[in-house]
Amino acid sequence: MSGNRRKNNSEITISLFSFQDIITCLSGIMILLVLLITVDVFMKKLDTVTSRFEKIEQHKANKPDNVEGQLKQEIEQLKKMQIESEHELSEHQIRLKELNLKLTELEKEEKSVANQQKRIAFIPAKDANPNQRAIIIECSGESIRTVSKSFAADLNGIRDFIQSLQHLDKLRDYPLFIIKPSASDYAMQLVQQVQSMGFDAGYDAMPENETTQ
After folding, report:
1. Region of residue 39 (left: phi > 0; alpha: psi -120 to 50; beta: else)
2. CB count, 10 Å around CB of 86?
3. Distances from the Cα of 173 to the Cα of 37, 126, 130, 166, 183, angstroms
């Protein structure tokens, strides 16, 4: 009897390998789940941090930096407008200077023309004919000049000048002496001599730097 029991006890055995496999699989599954949950939580936190950082950067870009950028752009535009205005002002000033120079030149030219105009102020002899033709005679310290001839302002020149008047018509022609200061020593005597020849001669004064030609 005892031998049979021992034999039966030795034949009946319990295997735990299946249970261990189940436990091992469950443990692996739990570890995988824990890892997946951990990674998911980490990724969510990372996304949150990244989103916050992006929002902060965007906020900075939209507010202080953007305002500063706009201010810089406006300042640059104002500087550019200032440079353009100064350039235009400089051009206007240059143009104004040129106009002033031209105006000064025109005024000088006008004075010069006015000074060079023939000063023909008739001082006729008594009862002179207004229809007479004036013969302009310019007297200076160096010469006696008519429209067509010039004579030296000396005795020979004066004699030649008196002879040149012989072909003039005493009734029609009117000798008009234009006397410069340098001719004051002989001019009036010459006028009187021509008047003594029967001409209704007249005279007028002229500055030294002017001319009738």
Report:
1. alpha
2. 10
3. 136, 15, 11, 11, 23
- pLDDT tier for residue 120 given thresholds of 50, 70 and 90: very low
**Is the separation of the CB atoms in 122 and 202 below 8 Å?**
yes
Output the pTM of the full model. Answer: 0.42
Which string of b and e fits 38-73 if b means at least 16 CB within 10 Å? eeeeeeeeeeeeeeeeeeeeeeeeeeeeeeeeeeee
Give Rg (Cα) of the chain.
63
Count the neighbouring beta carbons within 10 Å of the beta carbon of residue 202.
21
pLDDT higher than 80, residue 206: yes
What sign has the CA pseudo-torsion 132, 134, 135, 137?
positive
| Per-residue confidence (pLDDT) for residue 159, from 0 to 100 | 93
Q: How far apart are CA 93 and CA 80, in angstroms?
A: 20
| pLDDT tens-digit series, residues 62-112 | 555 566 777 788 888 888 887 887 777 777 778 778 877 877 777 777 666
The side-by-side arrangement of strands in the sheet containing 202-205 is 150-152, 143-145, 133-139, 173-179, 202-205
Share of the chain above pLDDT 90, in %: 23
In single-letter form, the type of residue at position 184 comes to S
